[in-house]
Amino acid sequence: MLYGPEGSENEVLEGFRNMGQVLAKDRFTLKQAAMTARRSWQLTLTNDIKLNLGRGDTMKRLNRFVELYPVLQQQAQAEGKRISYVDLRYDSGASVGWIPAPVEEPNQQQTQAQVQAE
């Protein structure tokens, strides 16, 4: 999905393609790209992580996310949470929003086997 202010169709499509290529190199897939009226980029990946890139240096900021992701993912797994969003509008670094990791339900066959064994 692509969103943008009226008259920005070509710019949004080009941005979607370019940013999608950068992300694809590291096995991320771009699900949605939105450009606000102030020309600020907001992306959503297929894993539902939202990226706030702001107005300038979008490719530099996108590359920063790719570099940070392994560390963020490691922290998420260690602490039982998931990345909700990454705000990359800073000159260096980022702010990260977390949500609880989904609770995995036991396999129904295992549950049935346990009930039958009792």
Question: Could you characterize what this model shows?
Answer:
The protein is of the alpha/beta class. The protein has one domain (2-116): Cell division protein FtsQ/DivIB (Rossmann fold). Helices cover 41% and strands 26% of the residues. It has 3 helices and 6 strands; from the N terminus they run E-H-E-E-E-H-E-E-H. The protein has a 6-stranded mixed sheet with strand order 1-2-3-4-5-6, covered by helices on one side. The longest helix is centred in the middle third of the chain and has 22 residues, at 58-79. The N and C termini lie far apart (51 Å). The mean pLDDT is 89.
Which features does this protein show?
Rossmann fold; 118 residues; six-stranded mixed β-sheet; single chain; alpha/beta; 26% strand; 3 helices
Indicate the topology.
Blueprint: E1 2-3, H1 9-24, E2 30-35, E3 41-45, E4 50-54, H2 58-79, E5 81-87, E6 95-100, H3 108-117
CATH topology group: Rossmann fold
Q: Largest beta sheet: what is the strand line-up? A: 1-2-3-4-5-6
- Helix count? 3
Major β-sheet annotation: 6 strands, mixed
Q: Strand percentage, roughly?
A: 25-35%
CATH level 4 superfamily: Cell division protein FtsQ/DivIB
Overall spatial form? globular
Low-confidence sequence ranges: none
Determine the N-to-C terminus distance. 51 Å
Count of strand segments: 6
The helix/strand order is: EHEEEHEEH
What is the residue-mean pLDDT, rounded to a whole number? 89
Keywords: Cell cycle, Cell division, Cell inner membrane, Cell membrane, Membrane, Transmembrane, Transmembrane helix
Pfam families: FtsQ_DivIB_C
Protein name: Cell division protein FtsQ
Organism: Leclercia adecarboxylata
